[in-house]
Amino acid sequence: MISRIFLRFRGDVGKDISSGPLSDRIRECAAGLARGKSCDVALEVGVGEGLLAKSVIDGGSVRTLVGVDVLKQQLIEAGLRIRGDNPSKDGGIFSGRLKVVVARGETLPFKEGAFNLAITVNTLHNQPSWDEASVILGAVCNVVRFGGSVIFDIRNRRDPLIYTAYRFSTIIDPSTRRLPVNAYSISRVKGRLTELGFDVVKKVPIRYRFWPIPSGFLIEAVRIKK
Predict the structure, then answer these.
(1) Where are the alpha helices (DSSP H) in the chain?
(2) Whether the model pTM is above 0.90
(3) Which InterPro entries match (predicted)?
(4) Residues 144, 190, 197, CA angle at the centre, nearest 5°?
């Protein structure tokens, strides 16, 4: 039973590596929030195969999306997904309205306040601990300008299904030793955002089917301090 729960919540079942019932739902909600933001250039950290990037770009409110990932092959797939463009081999690649950059989330190669909007979804839960996730969240928030927004998600530590599945993940599936899964408390996340000078304006509960407890939260926060 736990094994079946874990495979559903892990977020890597389906045609694409980043697909899965919970991951797809989070991505869908994030795309809806992003479509309500009109800006010339936005950032997505952990762009992967471009599933969210395509929705954001096709939505029309973002003129150019800068996608960051550590895996170059996934960036190539993202370029192919978005209007069938094939990125060049150079760093800082343009593919239509998508610019991709090979970089790590904790060391983003952008100036402070470079973007009106920054997004990272289905990323923080794959960090070894909250310490690493907190560093990435800080780096993403740092490149958002005053009055701009960050959109991200967490898996809910208070959901017993998520907590149990993630706690025993290495027993159920040894591959998670290479790609960990973790859930965090919303209070800890809000505290970190306050430290970074951000105010939460939206907290969207993400539920799995008919389960009453949110399995995750999609959060939008606005930078109110430099």
Answers:
(1) 2-10, 21-35, 51-59, 72-81, 130-142, 160-167, 169-172, 186-195
(2) no
(3) Methyltransf_11, SAM-dependent_MTases_sf
(4) 40
Q: Do residues 169 and 176 make contact, with C-beta atoms less than 8 angstroms apart?
A: yes
Angle between helices 130-142 and 186-195 (to 10 degrees): 40
Return the structure tokens found at 135. 């560093």
Q: Which domain holds residue 166?
A: 2-223
pLDDT 10s digit of each residue in the chain, 226 long?
344 444 454 444 344 445 678 899 999 999 999 988 888 899 999 988 888 988 898 888 898 999 999 887 777 777 777 765 455 444 444 456 888 889 999 999 999 999 999 999 999 999 999 999 999 999 999 999 999 999 999 999 999 988 888 887 666 666 656 678 899 999 999 999 999 999 999 999 999 778 899 999 999 999 998 7
**Residue 96: what are its φ and ψ, rounded to 5°?**
65, -115
Continuous segment of H or E residues that includes residue 60: none
Residues facing 220 on adjacent strands = 151, 202
139 with 105: CB under 8 angstroms? yes
Dihedrals φ, ψ of 3, to 5°?
-60, -45
* Total domains in the fold of the chain: 1
Type of residue numbered 114: A
CATH number of the domain residue 138 falls in: 3.40.50.150
